[in-house]
Amino acid sequence: MSTLIDRRDLDFLLYDFLGVERLCEAPRFAQHDRETFDAVIEAAYKLAEEQFASHASKLDANEPTFDGERVHLIPEVKEALDAYIEGGFLAAAFDEEDGGLQLPYTVGQAVSALFTAANIGTAGYPFLTAAAANLLKAVGSPEQQAKYMHPMVEGRFFGTMCLSEPQAGSSLGDIRTKAFPQEDGTYRIEGSKMWISGGEHDLSENIVHMVLARIDGAPAGTKGISLFIVPKYLVGDDGAVGERNGVRLAGLNHKMGYRGTVNTVLNFGENGDCVGYLVGEPNKGLAGMFHMMNEARIGVGMGASVLGYSGYLHSLAYALERPQGRKPSDPDPAKKPVPIVEHADVRRMLLTQKAYVEGGLALCLYCATLVDRQATTEDDDERARLKLLLDILTPIAKAWPSEFCLEANKLAIQVLGGYGYTREYPVERLYRDNRLNPIHEGTNGIQAIDLLGRKVTMRDGAALKLLLREMGATAEEATAHDALKPHAEALAQAIDTVAETTSTLMRDAGDPERYLANANEYLEMLGHVVIAWMWLRQALAAVDGDDDFHAGKRHTCRFFFQRELPRIERRARLLADGEDSCLTMQPAWF
Fold it and tell me: Strand, helix or coil at 563?
């Protein structure tokens, strides 16, 4: 069995749970069928296991180095990426007119998840590149797409996202990087960017930095931010790579995990002019960058889910084979020890992992189908409805898996005991890699504020009302099955709890500090309800199955509803009571 993602489960999620082959009925994907999807997924499994997973431990132990001139990585990174590009995986989800395979985004995300589970350090480079290319597809000019996006789709150029700065972090309104207009229509870029993954390397012909900066004289705050293309090497009108631009590596950041993806501090315009090219309209850069950031946020949740998933599979394999102890009902020391999976507490840890990682993966793939359904529907009202649903689910899809699938990694270590804490097994590396996900692309606290402060209130609560209706429809459907009826009733009650709690919270809407003080509790409450919804949908898809796989799905759904969903009641009470100990704690009291 693969230790990346269980293939049976991936097929179940794609075809039974989501029905992705129905996307082939739309003209956009009419050239594909399930056979096409399966062939791509099978090739991805093979490449991920043979050329990505095979050097994951070595890359973790030999992180990138900088000698003052060049960044050095172990040679297996470029070998794997060359094979990835040659196999067409970087271009898989791009339109045929842009050099891609025009696969559904959902299938592309499933494929990407395999490489993430195998080796996120190496997989990070093409993932950033695909996101940058998608950004240019959304807001770049035809000339910019031809000069920069198409070479990225081909894998000749790699891309980055340059938002944060040493003094600003997530507070983008405080960035200081400046852009000075030049007579030829270009801009001179000056400033420094921090935490830039993939910011310097020799893995590609060029690196295309997507940079947020403030045009000289622009308004303060986020309303004065513009977006620029700043390539490592200038590119001629004929597409040829030319002289070095004024982007310089100031140093590397050394991380707890994700060690294989070089993480940099970049200086722009420090040693000579740094040329940038405006993307879209002046002062509208943040809106453009959110095309990349929202895609990245779903990708973060997906990455968190599958890093947790791989840890779960490793710990499951260990628990099935590791003999230790005897059952309380038969403690005879003369008998052989039993595999530790026979112990109830080990099963608790495995069930918790399974509930978290398969629930998180289901949510992220569901969000991916919303992207595909928006792209294929011809009904404008339906497209708006799908966008609204994706808007409210995005902060949950980023934050919930990165919190709870990290918890799954912790439990994987616990299952292995002392071995789990050593580098002899991969579970400690997977935990370290996954620990970044609650932080990047907007910390989980920022996602919580976005959810409660913007998504819940936008359009007079339309997005939340839509989400609650969608979940309610699943609960109603599940009542037709006796085995699922208790779960359906529990989900319906949870939906009412969310609605009532949200209504109560609105009393403080005029006081933003108080209203948002417990936003994290709100995200975890709603997130748990959403994952319960995902599990009930999976149980519906598995309701008639009579084998171990389907029984495992139904039993894990039961576990989540009985052990996890009741946790929302404590959070709901805290929110409704307006508990304010975090808000009223004074800095001096620490």
Answer: helix
Pairwise CA distance, residues 73 & 279, whole Å:
32
Residue type for position 279:
V
State the residue for tokens 């037709």.
480
Helix, strand and coil in the chain, % to nearest 5: 60, 10, 25
Active-site residue, 441 included: yes
DSSP string, 344-391: HHHHHHHHHHHHHHHHHHHHHHHHHHHHHHHHH---HHHHHHHHHHHH
CB 88 within 8 A of CB 287: no
Taking only the tens of pLDDT, the chain with its 590 residues reads 789 999 999 999 999 999 999 999 999 999 999 999 999 999 999 999 999 999 999 999 999 999 998 999 999 999 999 999 999 999 998 999 999 999 999 999 999 999 999 999 999 999 999 999 999 999 999 999 999 999 999 999 999 999 989 887 677 778 899 999 999 999 999 999 999 999 999 999 999 999 999 999 998 888 999 999 999 999 999 999 999 999 999 999 999 999 999 999 999 998 779 999 999 999 998 887 776 677 788 999 999 999 999 999 999 999 999 988 888 888 888 888 899 999 999 999 999 999 999 999 999 999 999 999 999 999 999 999 999 999 999 999 999 999 999 999 999 999 999 999 999 999 999 999 999 999 988 899 999 999 999 999 999 999 999 999 999 999 999 999 999 999 999 999 999 999 999 999 998 888 999 999 999 999 999 999 999 999 999 999 999 999 999 999 999 999 999 999 999 999 999 999 999 999 999 999 99
Which of 190, 441, 524, 564 does the annotation list as catalytic?
A: 441
- Three-state SS for 203-217 is CCCEEEEEEEEEECC
Among left, alpha and beta (phi > 0; psi -120 to 50; other), residue 73 is beta
The conformational region for residue 195 under phi > 0 = left, psi -120 to 50 = alpha, else beta, is left
Report the alpha-carbon distance of residue 85 to residue 156 in Å, rounded.
9
Cα–Cα distance for residue pair 111/78, rounded to 1 Å: 19
Using the 8-state DSSP alphabet, how is residue 338 labeled?
A: P
The span from the CA of 446 to the CA of 438, in Å, is 10
Q: Are strands 275-279 and 187-197 parallel, antiparallel or unpaired?
A: antiparallel
Under 8 Å CB-to-CB from 429, ≥6 apart: which residues? 56, 57, 60, 257, 423
Residues 6+ away with beta carbon under 8 Å from 67: none
